[in-house]
Design brief:
Layout: H1 13-16, H2 18-50, H3 56-96, H4 103-123
Helix pairs in contact: 2-3, 3-4
Length: 125
């Protein structure tokens, strides 16, 4: 019995190329890092708010953390928009090649699109 794969098909660089895969991995990695940093900033803000706010240094630290939190939130929102645009462009590439794409590539088109829409809807919730 042979362990050789038959009729696997050719890789489509427009759908499953290394550039497309790296693009999604980098975007998701940056989104995770930004989310973790925002979570850390929010935890520090809660601790400062529970503490005595009559201290001038505590108030200055709170204002600084609030500004950072807003910036990180905006970056996360923009990253979600970029992921949505990338997903739409991948979908258009799939629609253009719909007659020649095997099921594997159709699934690659579908999965990131559902991820992008779920991320986008979580930001808008």
């Amino acid at each position: 019995m042979s362990s050789e794969c038959l009729n696997v098909g050719d890789a489509n660089p427009d759908i499953a190329g290394i550039g497309i895969i790296l693009l999604f991995v980098i975007q998701v990695g940056l989104a995770i890092v930004a989310s973790m940093y925002k979570f850390y900033l929010d935890l520090r803000l809660r601790r400062i708010r529970k503490a005595d706010l009559s201290n001038a240094t505590a108030q200055a630290a709170m204002v600084k953390l609030e500004k950072r939190s807003k910036v990180v939130n905006e970056i996360s929102l923009q990253a979600g928009d970029i992921q949505a645009l990338t997903g739409i462009s991948l979908l258009l590439s799939g629609i253009i090649q719909i007659n020649s794409l095997p099921f594997y590539h159709l699934r690659i088109v579908y999965e990131p699109l559902t991820l992008c829409t779920s991320i986008e809807s979580s930001y808008n919730a």
